Amino acid sequence: MKKVYLETFGCQMNVSDSERIATQLEIDGFQIIPNENSADVVLLNTCSIREKAEHKLYTRIGQICNTADKKPFIGVLGCVAQLEGETLFKGNPAIDFVVGTKAVGRISEAVERVLDGGKKFADLRDRDADYNWTVSTSQRHSPFVGFVPIIEGCNKFCTYCIVPFSRGREKSLTAAEIIRQVQVLKIQGIREVHLIGQNVNSYRPMSEEGLEGFYGATPFSRLLRAVAATGIERIKFNTSFPRDFHTDIIKAIEENENLCNWVHLPVQSGSNDVLKIMRRGHSIESYMEKVDKIKSSDRKISLTTDIIVGFPTETEENFAETLEMAQYCHFDSAFVFKYSPRFGTPAFEMHDTISKQIKTERFLVLEKVLRKSQQIALQDQLNKTFKVLAERISSKNNREMTGHTTCHKIVNFKGADVLLGDIVNVKITECKKNSLYGEVC
Ligand code: 5AD
Ligand code: SF4
């Protein structure tokens, strides 16, 4: 049995792709192993959202070549693979094959080809029509949390972003297939599903198959109601695109207990000038209006976001508007990124006008503001009791467990009598920097 080691970088879509890649390899008789040491083949599922991720890939290949018992065949998968194709062979001679983001269904063919001593090759072709979206229980990233892709690719072409090039155009899966997958996951003991995609709320399937009988202002809110009707315990969805965020989503959450009270809504900037050059398609006023509606819901919906600092042309005034916006929105948590130019995107042509030092300064100033609102949001949970899914033993203390609330806050708790996969009531006793601590009650 040939041994394959698969390592994943980047977003939840890559994690989800890796689950299906490993499933396919297992079905076709390969053994998936937990590290590279004795691997015949190493697969690296890559991310290209920022420059550093590519450097990380090359560093990792160097390590693998140094530490493995004998040099394994190395396959590069994911976004870097799709963007760079055969040029990767020139960049790093240790790479033996390249498999693009849509070609993952042919992974076994690719692995067999290199094992048979074939020449270096790249498969960047489209998905086969009969691509299998299911994941075997043994290859899930969690036995209790399941990722279900509902839309792939992106049509938005924000000027800084490489995703529309690495993942192609938006394509929605049929609601019937999504619902079928959720039903299977439920039977298999999955307690929480995440409906995933670059922009889940831009969901637009070719037909209404599976959505019949479900009302809603958009196909996405109809899908949310349809998935809620499966009765699976928790449903989260990620990521939402502000322009397509219809307030009917909030209504759907209010109507269905199992639709979780968490919205991830990347704003990117607080300045209308910058948003325009980013071509985000929303103004800061329209974003804040949506935030007001999310915050006014009785479901106490937590709000998280992504923000880029140092985008070309961003002035001190523009940045001050971002700080103001962050103070207004009181995000439960936020990811801040320093702008990183990506070759092939329109922003790359604008030149990276903001110095490294200014980017770092803005990053730190914004982080401080965001930390404050994150702390307030965490402290607000003190002495309250939440339902927490016991997802795994804590990596820091094996007598503690870790999991998430419905609003996606991390909670650590003493877990002596708790079984993994249980949803337990935890009373919050302490706030840490990024998480909560509590006791089962
Ligand atoms: N530079 C910095 N951050 C970026 N993101 C996407 N592209 C870039 C880039 N070129 C960030 C955005 C997005 C998140 C996933 O990554 O904030 O929401
Ligand atoms: Fe990138 Fe914009 Fe698409 Fe998000 S919406 S993946 S930021 S192009």
Please characterize this protein's 3D structure.
With 441 residues, this protein is α/β, with parallel strands linked by helices. The protein is built from 14 helices and 19 strands. The mean pLDDT is 95. α8 (219-228) packs parallel to α9 (248-255). It is globular and about 60 Å long. It has three domains: 3-123, Methylthiotransferase, N-terminal domain (Rossmann fold), CATH 3.40.50.12160; 137-377, pyruvate-formate lyase- activating enzyme (Alpha-Beta Horseshoe), CATH 3.80.30; 385-440, OB fold (Dihydrolipoamide Acetyltransferase, E2P), CATH 2.40.50. The strands form five sheets. Strands 2-1-3-4-5-6 form a six-stranded parallel β-sheet, sandwiched between helices. It has a five-stranded mixed β-barrel with strand order 15-16-17-19-18. The site of iron/sulfur cluster has 10 residues, from α6.
Q: Which architecture of the largest domain does the CATH hierarchy give at level 2?
A: Alpha-Beta Horseshoe
Task: Say how many strands there are.
Answer: 19
Cα radius of gyration in angstroms: 22 Å
CATH class of the largest domain: Alpha Beta
Largest sheet data: 6 strands, parallel
Keywords:
441 residues, alpha/beta, Rossmann fold, pyruvate-formate lyase- activating enzyme, OB fold (Dihydrolipoamide Acetyltransferase, E2P), 3 domains, six-stranded parallel β-sheet, five-stranded mixed β-barrel, 14 helices, binds 5'-deoxyadenosine, binds iron/sulfur cluster
